[in-house]
Amino acid sequence: xxxxxxxxxxxxxxxxxxxxxxxxxxxxxxxxxxxxxxxxxxxxxxxxxxxxxxxxxxxxxxxxxxxxxxxxxxxxxx
Length: 78
Prior knowledge:
With about 80 residues, the chain is an all-alpha fold. It has one domain (about 5-60). It is built from 2 helices and no strands. Helix 1 (about 5-35) packs antiparallel against helix 2. The relative contact order is 0.14.
């Protein structure tokens, strides 16, 4: 992976995090106003958006962080 690819991947991760958190907050606020439950649903959806963002970041970056396996490792030899 070149330096440019890495930068674009990090930018994509940043946008993913922002969209998840802001999207969760906006959905929560809209539902709160519609159902008159302030601030319960805002907090619930903000929390869900945050957890979704963390999970997504982990899924996106985990393959690049893992140590490469040595040949023959991970398979049982008989």
